[in-house]
Amino acid sequence: MSDRIHTLSGYIHEYQRSVHQPEQFWSRIADSFHWKKRWEKIVEWNFEEPKIEWFKGAKLNITENILEKHLFTMGDKPAIIWEPNEPGDENQTITFRQLYEKVNQFANAMKAKGIKKGDRVIIYMPMVPEAAIAMLACARIGAVHSVVFAGFSSNALADRINDCQAKMVLTSDGNFRGAKSIPVKAVVDEALVKTKTIENVIVFKRTGEGVEMKAGRDIWWEDAIKGQSTECSAEVMDAEDMLFILYTSGSTGKPKGVVHTCGGYMVYTKYSFENVFQYDQGDVYWCTADVGWITGHSYIVYGPLLAGATTVMFEGVPTYPDAGRFWDVVDKYKVNQFYTAPTAIRALQAYGTEPVDKRDLSSLKVLGTVGEPINEEAWHWYHSHVGKGKCPVVDTWWQTETGGIMISPLAGITPTKPSYATLPLPGIQPVIVDADGNELKGNSVEGNLCMKFPWPGMLRTTYGDHERCKNTYFATYKNMYFTGDGVKRDEDGYYRILGRVDDVINVSGHRMGTAEVENAINEHPKVIESAVVGYPHEVKGQGIYAYVICDLENRTEENLINEISETVRNIIGAIAKPDKIQVVSGLPKTRSGKIMRRILRKIAEGDTSNLGDTSTLLNPEIVDEIKAGAK
Ligand code: PRX
Hints:
It is an enzyme of class 6 (ligase). This is Acetate--CoA ligase. The chain is an alpha/beta fold. Helix 1 (8-20) packs across helix 2 (22-30), helix 6 (154-164) packs across helix 7 (185-192) and helix 12 (342-349) crosses helix 14 (376-386). Bound molecules: adenosine-5'-monophosphate-propyl ester (PRX).
């Protein structure tokens, strides 16, 4: 039985059911999966502790719902189409049968190296099919994967390895991105100096550059799979066993490991994938994200493959070798559903319509966006020039913590409105609250976005620190999951996401904690104090603006700014490098010593007309100095 919704009235009906009879609703959806043992209870939850259990008592293995499920019915269907960085290089198509074999073989290779159920395995790899194979192989044997975006620095990688006490790293020699070839193994080597738990590193050969292989620890991928069987029985997992950990930034300095579990995540990613993108068998679907982010987990790997979809994996970047690359790939594989980030759309928009107009994009049926608010101009450009006015645009709102898409149009079913994520998916119960936690009912209201009922794909904890999970998401408002986003519900009941209301900024669709960037800046020996805020950036959505107090002795300001930038790159990665750094002699502080970020944000935005009352500051005179030196 298909759980695809086909009409608006169908959506409304399903939505009502999901709210009034959530257990019956999710039980019906879950029935289409293969469970080794059926659940005893659909959901048990309280948002106080929090404790959330879906499909309680059920046993399963998510990979059986991808591999065995499609092996006999569509074994020859392409599961993954891989497009390499260089357009002329050989691409790769992996059928469901081949995927079955490769996943099992690699699962056996990991087992041979002592990996067993519950062990944590770090995946630090470029966008090659082996990254997806590695994730699924972990899931096959019950190991918990934690994918770390291969652009993160060795320090960031080491922190994550240490936090989850991982036993193995899966990586590559190097990584091609656009015109660049980036060392990857060398970064792992650097990270491992700061960690103690890694027993083995399996290295996939991608760029062929020379790397050091530490005897007894490091092993080439091709050697690891040599002689391994392509049959590996699937580990029996409890629905609530951990599937993966994914680190994400929050308002404190340290990234947290969001934990997703097997049963609920499986049900939710497949259901949301099929309905939002309206995937038909035979369609080719392409999400341009990296597997290092939640979008890559849920909508390159798990959701599409659970649905038996053909999913495109792209190694390169949108502007290499030119700004028409995305459209070349769409044309080459006759992509039907295309899913990207507003920042990519804005970057390509800057090249005009020629690169789009020159390609045949007639295969496209659905366009999607994710990761940040999409401005109306970019929405219209996408809709008119890429979709030729005939493809619905699904603006999908969700988070690492939600596991899957929460608020979004269903393609071709929900009438869209530019820059609105529109309506919640069945099973999702958003509420808008004011600062005191009072629910703002009815339409035409604005406030903080919360959820009042659990959904199967939601996070269960933050790894090794449940208190942190509680405090971050469940303590702000009683009995609600707090998203950290501001939202408006308009006169039609449509949701428009307004952006983060906490100290998290969204740079090119990537979450960055201001405290995390400040900590990195403060590592520079000449920095005394810093404050980081976001500001509107034409392409990135938000840029990073850093105010720093530093000791300029023996250095020019320019030198120091460059050094600070490098420090941030070393500690977090290039994505966290500030766009602007302003050297200041002080920061505006309240009498209790708290930095007045509101003022810094206004100055960074270039809006100094109304800074509010600054007379209560400890050092009001600093405001004029900062204003005068603003970048
Ligand atoms: O602020 C929201 C923004 O991205 C945040 C979640 O970031 P992350 O966990 O990295 O996941 C990104 C991909 C799912 C949210 O709190 N965000 C995500 N999608 C949208 C969005 N803001 C507006 N519109 C969206 N469609």
